[in-house]
Amino acid sequence: MEHAQTDQSFPAARFIKEIGRGRKGARSMSRDDARELYAAMLDGRVADLELGAIVLALRIKGESVDEIAGFLDAAEASFEKLAAPEGEYAPIVIPSYNGSRQMPNLTPLLALLLAQRGAPVLIHGVTRDRGRVTTAEILQALGFSFAQTVQEAQQCFARRMPVFMPIEALAPRMARLLALRRILGVRNSTHTLVKILQPFAGPALRLTSYTHPEYLDMLSAYFSSAAPAARGDAFLMRGTEGETVANAKRAQQIEWFHDHTRTVLVQKQEPVDEMPPLPSSADAETTAAWISEALHGSRPIPESIADQAEHCLQVASRLRAS
């Protein structure tokens, strides 16, 4: 396991002793301790053996709200923030770390609908994922390139284009911890953190999702109590194959968190007999061509995604005005 080890090693044993006692016996860290530990992990000051122990201990125990809050405090201090461009809307942040296996991935459609209306949209995530079609691949098929620096991202915002930043470009220290999955074979806390990351210096609207019910409870508690209100608002929904775009076949519930207040924006839709028209295949080229046609009016925009876009624009406008 290779990482940027510094000369100043971090003694992690006292943390492992608390979190490493299994699901029933482990105790959670305070927010300050979690911030200190994760900052050391990001800096490469935790030895490989201890790093593996921490990742697996948290995987078994599950993260508490205070731990996620502390980890995110450290994560957001580890990279250069983006500046929100002038305009009617606060930035809208779309994480994309799952892609799709079966359904066409329509995250790019949502991003482009928002950008067409003048909202600054930042998509961050992975560019490739074996066995899945990523948002990055579809955007490439649409002719978009990736922003590799904050300066490139700012230039795209100025041209009212959606911006895709690979996590390696946006937050390289976090990308290194994400890559531990290839070595250890399991997800770690960083996979949750990138989905709730707020990369702007000022307030922004984050679109966030969960895949397992326990994360709904934990993330709801985080946004209701521990998330800094000055960082902006968040939408929380069950992911569409893990992506933060509304399911084109059946809208899922979307909750809005503003200043620690939780509001249901969209109710879960009941199953329908007739499926909306969707791309004939989930591959990147077919999906990109269908999205292009939809944006030019020759394909119908799925109602659930159009509604999600409208809610995003309303809240982003409110955030900008506040």
Give a short overview.
This protein has 322 residues and is α/β, with parallel strands linked by helices. Helices cover 44% and strands 12% of the residues.
Describe the structure.
The chain has 322 residues and is of the alpha/beta class. The protein is built from 15 helices and 7 strands. The chain has helices at residues 13-19, 22-25, 31-43, 48-61, 65-76, 107-116, 135-141, 150-158, 167-170, 172-178, 180-184, 189-193, 213-226, 284-295, 303-321, and strands at 92-96, 121-125, 163-166, 204-210, 232-238, 254-258, 261-266. Strands 3-2-1-4-5-6-7 form a 7-stranded mixed sheet, with helices on both faces. Strand 4, helix 13 (213-226) and strand 5 (232-238) form a beta-alpha-beta unit. The longest helix is centred in the last third of the chain and has 19 residues, at 303-321. It starts with 12 loop residues before the first helix and ends with a helix. The relative contact order is 0.15. Mean pLDDT is 94; it is low at 1-6.
Which helices and strands, and how do they pair?
Blueprint: H1 13-19, H2 22-25, H3 31-43, H4 48-61, H5 65-76, E1 92-96, H6 107-116, E2 121-125, H7 135-141, H8 150-158, E3 163-166, H9 167-170, H10 172-178, H11 180-184, H12 189-193, E4 204-210, H13 213-226, E5 232-238, E6 254-258, E7 261-266, H14 284-295, H15 303-321
Parallel strand pairs: 1-2, 1-4, 2-3, 4-5
Antiparallel strand pairs: 5-6, 6-7
Helix pairs in contact: 1-4, 3-5, 5-13, 6-14, 6-15, 7-14
